[in-house]
User: Fold this.
Amino acid sequence: MKRRNFILLSSVASSVVLTGCMPMLLAGGMGGMGMDFTSATNSNPLSSSANDKTFNKALAIPPLLEGENRNGTYHYDLKIQKAQHEFFDNTLTDTYAVNGTYLAPTLKLINGQDVSLNYTNKLDETTTMHGHGMHLPAKMDGTAHQSIAPDARWSAKYRVKQKACTNWYHPHAHEKTAEHVYKGLAGLIIIEDEQSQSLDLPKDYGVDDIPLVLQDRFFDAKGQLHYAPSMHQTMMGYKGDAFVTNGVINPYVEVSAKEIRLRLLNGSNSTVYNLSFSDNRSFKQIATDNSFLESPVVLNSVLLSPGERAEIVVNLEDDLGGSLYLMETRQAKAFLKINVNTKATHRTKVPSVLTRLDKGLVQDATHRRKFVLSARMGQMYINNKSMDMNRVNEVIPLNRVEIWEVHNQKMMMMGMEHNFHMHGTHFMVVERNGSIHNVLENEKGYKDTVYLASGDSVKLVVKMTDYTDKTTPYMYHCHFLEHEDRGMMGQFLVTK
Ligand code: C2O
Ligand code: CU
Ligand code: CU
Assistant:
């Protein structure tokens, strides 16, 4: 009764195999609809017939929500609600969403613009909505200090004051972030500035500038999402066996034979993705979390830990009539099939210089802080302390250049991956494992989340600018959401 889905990519000598990445739906669980999908571990990579029928759903593009200009401030009305989403034909999955049925609309904000993101919480429980990567006052950050009770409203009002980048928004409720994101609450905030608007890059949203919210989910026999991690899953991450791209399992997208820009967000709870194309072609990474890179970086794969973003441009000029997959190489599964089926009418060429960055300079730093990430028995710590809403861990003077040293402490028995994210600003990675030479070319843009393999350490240059608040803290934490919710988080104030 098992249906195995396997695809051989004939062009790949090393036999990259696409498993069907179907969720585990146990036979009989789908109300007699005969949907006995099983997660197909590929058994016969030498099959010659490329069976990619599973990638037959059109990719959804999160709708762009137009702001409404009221007296010079652009308002975005966002309703956080319970919904039902069709991940599987004829099956509705209970979800949380903003305005729609899964995920949230994309907001396109322009540097310098005054905005008001007006949230209404229509859930039965308290949540929050945080602007990840946004440079804004602590009171507008959307952490658990700005909770939104059921039926309440809360607005994040601020002036956009940062470089072009791809940010995102998601709940940050105390010990509930993982569950709320898992159920579907996440959306993109694209920031544009004069530079991004003038560069010769693909910019047609959803056409050649394609946002991809990459997630994995575990569905039960009835096609429902449950968030119930065991202690082991808390430690090692709550990973799903189904890859979900913009809320669609096994989607395809149709594009023209030209350069295509992908805005990649690792929107998973705790899974690290190493992304590449099925023919292992090279591509150019043009942006990190919070800015363009100064120059494009040529890569064959890009590693993204939860919360990180990368903008990449892949050249499909010679691929008319062909297809390729966006792969995740650690699991050897595909997120997306890309069909190149129309001639391009307009072409772009990635410029060799994209932006100028204020380089973080170690020698400018006048203060140093150390953060050690560790875990014991399902509880998570930074500097041996678990998150306490009532404790301010660090106080940072405005405009002071600091070095933040982050260590992923190696445990005796087991290595764990983590990352480190801070709110309210970006940082530069200036050292990795003791040397500037270990800093990867594609982490030399502004970032807000940095990956640490077991035993890794990084040095970050940090400078808080513009906003102070004597009482409301920002947060820093591991962005593996299970870790964050189990205490791997701390708070900091920025003062005059
Ligand atoms: Cu993406 Cu503190 O969050
Ligand atoms: Cu954040
Ligand atoms: Cu972690």
